[in-house]
Amino acid sequence: MIRMVVFFVCCLLTASPVFAAPKLVASLKPLADLAAGVVGDPSRVELLLPGGASPHSFTLRPSQMRALAAADLVVWVGPQLENFLVRHLASLPEERLLTFGSLSGVRLLPARRGGAWRHEAVEHDEDGDIDPHLWLDPDNARLLVLALAERLAGIDPENGTDYRRRAERLAGWIAALQQGLSDRLAAVRTKKYLVFHDAYQYFERAFGLEPLGALAIHPDRPPGARRLRELRDLLRRSGAVCVFSEPQFEPKLLRVLTEGLALRHGQLDPLGVDRPVSGASYLDLLAGLGDGLVSCLSN
């Protein structure tokens, strides 16, 4: 039912405006989706990181550097995630930069440490003390779309009413989807599971879920043999129901981890990279996480 509603909303959020909207650059796919839902024309939003690329090791191409320099507005999470952008954004005036993690009222959660969230490798400085996956909290997403509307209205006052109208509509759809997901996920809130990497804390807090931990705290740094043994023991003792891979990464380690254990396998995608850039794709991202969790965790 939720997916059917998202499909219907797609028609409302992807109609192109008749005017030349400002040009936006977004670092990550979910930010590009939310920006497209507000600007009204996905072709006016350029996505920097392609599907499967890691923000921890990404290098900009010359064409992307030119796009940053020419953009009316650049949308990013902040230096705790897209460290590769810090040097390139340093010369941009403040009015051309929207930093998600610095918005007033946005919920910031500390990065999880220790126990099943521990990793043997020393984390890079850009990982920081804040969990940067802010977009998976629906409340944060609503704050972002409303902030985007105000910034776009400042750039293009003539069409400010349209930006605000689209932002309010998208924020309303996010709120409605949040309620629907809360109802669906209620039945699996106490089920234990393990994720591939620690990307879902905001979603889990929003819906009261109880994960055991993550196979890898950082997707680019796989765990060693000792860590795998510890996690296998945890899975045996905890009564875990499911382990989740991600489409951007090879699930071989998860197969090694769970060999011989009676666990179901699911897949979660924190970015939604296989969907076209649009406001509806952000809704589909959240709905997909809910579907994946319910499908794997339900008896």
Automatic annotation (TrEMBL):
Gene3D superfamilies: Nitrogenase molybdenum iron protein domain (3.40.50.1980). It comes from the Bacteria. Pfam families: ZnuA. GO terms for biological process: cell adhesion; metal ion transport. InterPro entries: AdhesinB, Bact_metal-bind_prot9, Lipoprotein_PsaA-like, ZnuA-like. GO terms for molecular function: metal ion binding. Keywords: Signal, Transport. Residues 1-20 form the signal peptide. Belongs to the bacterial solute-binding protein 9 family. This is Zinc transport system substrate-binding protein. It comes from Geothermobacter ehrlichii.
